[in-house]
Amino acid sequence: MKSLTAAALALLAATPLAAQPYGYGPGPGMGRGNPELRAERFQCRQEARARGYRGPEVRGAVIACLEARRPDLARILQCREAVRARGYVPRTPEFRMAVRSCRFGA
């Protein structure tokens, strides 16, 4: 009886995790950052792969797709790349401030 109850609870606990879209579930790196940007980037990546792009071509296609769909989100990616190229370490307060100043032109 106890094993049946435990199995039912495990099944019920796992069901919401399986229903969540990509990028929003548990795990390292999940749930961090801008969920809107992650969702748009995922859709653009899927479109690029559907068109047959592979490897480095996908990244360029994703950026072009974001620039066409959501220029504000593309600006975030460009600023993050520029700040990373200047040597800032991601997920630090200095990195976030540099990205913010790049985005808003301060």
Automatic annotation (TrEMBL):
Keywords linked to the UniProt accession: Signal
The signal peptide, as residue positions, is 1-19
- Lineage, opening ranks: Bacteria, Pseudomonadati, Pseudomonadota, Alphaproteobacteria, Hyphomicrobiales
In its keyword annotation, does this UniProt entry include Signal? yes
Specify the species: Phreatobacter cathodiphilus
- Report the protein name in the record: UrcA family protein
